[in-house]
Automatic annotation (TrEMBL):
<dbReference type="InterPro" id="IPR010852">
    <property type="entry name" value="ABATE"/>
</dbReference>
<feature type="domain" description="Zinc finger CGNR">
    <location>
        <begin position="148"/>
        <end position="189"/>
    </location>
</feature>
<dbReference type="InterPro" id="IPR021005">
    <property type="entry name" value="Znf_CGNR"/>
</dbReference>
<dbReference type="InterPro" id="IPR023286">
    <property type="entry name" value="ABATE_dom_sf"/>
</dbReference>
<dbReference type="Pfam" id="PF07336">
    <property type="entry name" value="ABATE"/>
</dbReference>
<dbReference type="Pfam" id="PF11706">
    <property type="entry name" value="zf-CGNR"/>
</dbReference>
<protein>
    <recommendedName>
        <fullName>Zinc finger CGNR domain-containing protein</fullName>
    </recommendedName>
</protein>
Length: 199
């Protein structure tokens, strides 16, 4: 997905944040807060945010935002009465957009050349992450509906994915989960054939 010159991978950051914070319940329960906060900052740096010097105090807000972002991925399998999964997803996206500080402008900070920012110049790291990731999932849903994102289809996996590939066939968070699911399906078919007495 091309964000018209925006320097960070906002959609990748949204997926990575959701998975780091919500895919493993109590996964960070024994992790010291400073190490947990550093992990989130490193994750953002990997997605080209200038986050290395972000204060540790940003961690709780980033975690809360990751849980909010998850609502968009979870909504793909939701339907409430007459509402379609797309309707539920749109409501989730609009709730995110309503809560972000928007201030579009061009910036040339840190020698990166002029590029687009969604948050105002004085925005904190958390505000920048919130605005860019909210826009990223909004653009994904507006272009592709609910066909390009969701929760991994592998049994027992809670990780999420966003598919920006050409063929839009992704249903798993990783090749490892896709392979495990394929092996499990193959074994189930073999067992069914054996039970039916097929050669």
């Amino acid at each position: 997905m091309d964000f018209i010159g925006y320097k960070s991978d906002a959609l990748g950051a949204a997926v990575a944040l959701v998975n780091a914070v919500t895919a493993e319940p109590d996964g960070d329960a024994d992790t010291p807060p400073e190490q947990s906060g550093r992990r989130l900052r490193d994750l953002l740096v990997e997605h080209r945010y200038l986050a290395a010097r972000a204060p540790a105090s940003a961690e709780p807000a980033l975690r809360a935002w990751a849980r909010r972002l998850r609502t968009v991925f979870d909504a793909t399998s939701s339907s409430e009465g007459a509402c379609s999964a797309l309707d539920v997803t749109a409501v989730a996206v609009n709730a995110l957009l309503a809560d972000v500080q928007i201030g579009p402008h061009l910036s040339d900070h840190d020698g990166q050349g002029w590029h687009f920012h969604y948050a105002p110049p004085e925005a904190s790291l958390v505000e920048r992450v919130r605005s860019t990731t909210a826009f990223a999932v909004a653009m994904l849903v507006s272009e592709y509906g609910v066909d390009r994102h969701g929760v991994c289809a592998a049994e027992g996996c809670r990780r999420v994915y966003a598919d920006t590939s050409r063929n839009a066939a992704r249903r798993y968070c990783s090749p490892a989960c896709a392979n495990r699911a394929a092996v499990a399906a193959h074994r189930a078919r073999a067992k069914l054939k054996a039970g039916a007495g097929e050669p």
